[in-house]
Amino acid sequence: MEDSLLKRFGVSMEGSLLRKFDHLVMQKRYTNRSEAVRDLVRDALVQQSWETAEQIVAGSILLFYDHHQRNLLDELTMIQHEMHDNILATTHFHLEKSSCLELIIVKGKAKEIQLLSDKMTSLKGVKYGKFTVAPVEKM
Description:
Elements: H1 15-27, H2 33-49, E1 56-66, H3 72-82, E2 87-94, E3 99-109, H4 110-121, E4 126-135
Antiparallel strand pairs: 1-3, 1-4, 2-3
C-alpha cells in the first residue's frame, strides 16, 4: 500500500514563523512538527470538502499584508477588477506603518470565489490570508 507510506518533503519558513509554529506544536501537544503539519493539511481538506465547483457561496476573504511590498497593491487591484462581479464590498484598515488588513465580501460560484482567494492570498507580501464561505443555495 504505497498510499499509506509516509513521504518526506521540505518546508521553508522564516525563523520567527517557525518559532511560533513550534510554540503551537507544544501548546497543542503534538509529538512533532510533522504531525502538526498533517493535522493542518487534514483540516484544510475538510474545510473544502463540502463545496462543489458550481455551488453558489457567499463569504469573506481576509488579507493581512505589507503595503510597502513592491507591486502588491497594483496586483491586488488588478485581480479584484478582473473578478469584480464576485466582489460585493471591500474594507481596508491601516493597522501599522506598513501593515494593512483588507476584508473582501464575496459571492458567486465556489470555484470562482476560491480562485479569487487563491490569487490574492498567494501574492508576495500577503502575510496571512483566510477564506471563509457558506453555501447560499441548499446543498
